[in-house]
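Lecture notes, part 5. Sequence design as translation. It can be helpful to think of inverse folding as translation between two languages: the language of shapes and the language of residues. The source text, in structure tokens, appears below.
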């Protein structure tokens, strides 16, 4: 049976939107938010389900704005990447470069998702009465996410993009989740933010390796371009060490040292890859990109699990 053109066109549009939205990578914001909520549960607070889901929705909107802005403002460097070294974890979706969508539509798509995030913030503050810092926390997330790539700020070219990501995913997302439920902040949540921030920093740094030469040619002055491949590899290794070390210290403090095993094993494998220079080879580097994201997810899941004990 022949598929109607309107249905085929709709399916094509959905596929393009899904590619732009990088749906699997939304987990990097959802997991830290869930972590902050679980710490609130552990501290004895009664959780508001509507507040939780509204917070998740706001977080997703901010991430979508960041992804769309990255696709639009990184067009040049994404187009310069070597197709033979194309990574699933870096270099954009290339839907603009392939002519599948008008770049201006991608830029304009950031506006409604940011507006929805703002409306969610107002609902949380004024109707759910989550506290006066609700909007400032959300605006901070927008400043770090959207302006990571967007002109005229473009944190990623100033050597500050990686720090913003470490802050937003490491501290801000779990802290905002905790605040929305409690109206306060947590020292324990802040301590857990150290390995979370270190692991997401490792994700960003290793994901910059496939785009190193394209970014350098386009004048994109991220940390890897500024440091170079060798020093960048050392910085990545330090992030992995901090992740494993602080995870061990914190899990030992709450008498859950056995939960460290997956982080220790994963971190050791990644450090071995760095020590052997495997990040220079596309196939191995792709596995390291995947492994680093998994390590970040593991750190969040382990501390979520620790909070359920």
């Amino acid at each position: 049976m022949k598929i109607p053109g309107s249905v085929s066109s709709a399916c094509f549009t959905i596929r393009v939107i899904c590619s732009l939205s990088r749906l699997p990578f939304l987990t990097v914001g959802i997991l830290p938010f869930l972590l902050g909520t679980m710490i609130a549960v552990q501290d004895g607070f009664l959780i508001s389900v509507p507040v939780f889901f509204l917070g998740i929705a706001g977080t997703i909107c901010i991430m979508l704005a960041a992804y769309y802005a990255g696709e639009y403002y990184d067009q040049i460097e994404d187009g310069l990447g070597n197709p033979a070294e194309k990574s699933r974890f870096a270099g954009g979706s290339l839907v603009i470069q392939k002519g599948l969508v008008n770049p201006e539509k991608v830029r304009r798509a950031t506006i409604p998702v940011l507006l929805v995030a703002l409306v969610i913030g107002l609902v949380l503050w004024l109707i759910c009465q989550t506290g006066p810092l609700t909007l400032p926390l959300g605006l901070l997330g927008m400043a770090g996410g959207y302006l990571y790539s967007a002109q005229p700020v473009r944190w990623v070219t100033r050597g500050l993009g990686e720090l913003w990501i470490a802050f937003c995913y490491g501290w801000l997302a779990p802290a905002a989740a905790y605040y929305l439920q409690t109206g306060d902040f947590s020292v324990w949540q802040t301590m857990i933010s150290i390995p979370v921030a270190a692991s997401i920093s490792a994700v960003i740094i290793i994901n910059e390796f496939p785009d190193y030469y394209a970014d350098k040619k386009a004048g994109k002055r991220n940390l890897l371009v500024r440091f170079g491949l060798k020093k960048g590899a050392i910085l990545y290794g330090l992030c992995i060490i901090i992740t494993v070390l602080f995870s061990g210290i914190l899990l030992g403090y709450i008498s859950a040292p056995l939960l460290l095993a997956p982080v220790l094993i994963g971190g050791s494998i990644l450090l071995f890859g760095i020590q052997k220079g495997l990040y220079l080879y596309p196939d191995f580097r792709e596995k390291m990109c995947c492994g680093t994201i998994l390590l970040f997810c593991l750190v969040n899941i382990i501390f979520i699990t620790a909070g359920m004990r």
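The translated text above is only one of many valid answers, since several sequences can fold into similar shapes. The domain at 22-308 is CATH 1.10.600 (Farnesyl Diphosphate Synthase).
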